[in-house]
Amino acid sequence: MPRSKHLERHFTQRIGWLRAAVLGANDGIVSTAALVVGVAAAESTRSSILLAGLAGLVAGAMSMAAGEYVSVSSQADTEKADLTRERRELSELPESELDELQGIYVQRGLDAGLARRVAEQLTAHDALAAHARDELGITETQTARPIQAAVASALTFSVGAALPLIVAVLAPPMHIIALVSAASLVSLAVLGTVAAHAGGASRLRGAVRVTFWSALALALTAAVGRLFGTQV
Fold first, then answer.
1. CA 82: distance to chain centroid?
2. Rounded distance, CA 4 to CA 179, Å?
3. Which of 60, 98, 212, 230 has the greatest count of CB atoms below 10 A from its CB?
4. What range does the domain containing 133 cover?
């Protein structure tokens, strides 16, 4: 009977999009909620609060997209430069590269003879891929993807930032600070739980971590708005 295929899905396969998505959504909620709470604490009108929040959403989404694109592009450029150099070395110094690959496998626990055979077979199959993976640490699941990271960050930031804005629109003027803060903290706790679960980490720890720092950000922003808003 044919043997069934054993398929595995690892958490590291999600690193490329998970980091950018979680960062974008978390930053969208925290920064916009803090902006709304800070402006509201200065006893501003609802229109001023919403205008500040909307401006924060647009500016934040563009900033996240640009920041992620530039950052991940730099990583991609570095990877490309390393692969170009490795390709040249494989062409000019094939024996030295084979010895280098053998040495890597010896350090990982193989005896010299087996390490040599493994190095030779992997080199014959795809030398560049073997060196990229085992010498440079560049794998398909963790390859830099600038556009993917930029789009994921901008979209998730916008979705996260929309939440405190919607609450600010619907909440009574006297309760904007309380309701925006509460809704944002609950959403952040859920986000931390989901992100931790997707990454295979402790869900409770993820929720507590993001909620604590977000609550601190909201409190400090409200204090600034209350302090300086009464003096302007």
1. 23
2. 53
3. 60
4. 12-229
As a whole number of angstroms, the longest Cα–Cα distance in the chain is 81
Taking Cα atoms as reference points, which of 17, 16, 28, 18 lies closest to residue 156? 28
Sequence-distant (6+) residues with CB within 8 A of 170 are none
Whether 5 is covered by a domain: the verdict is: no
Query: Is 214 in contact with 29 (CB distance < 8 Å)?
Result: yes
Q: Work out how many domains the chain is built from and give that number.
A: 1
At 5, phi and psi to the nearest 5? -75, 140
Tokens for 228? 């300086």
Q: Is residue 6 part of a domain?
A: no
In a domain, 1, yes or no: no
Give domain status of residue 176, yes or no: yes
Query: pTM higher than 0.85, yes or no?
Result: no
For 97-113, how does the pLDDT look when each residue is reduced to its tens digit (9 = 90+)? 888 888 899 988 888 88
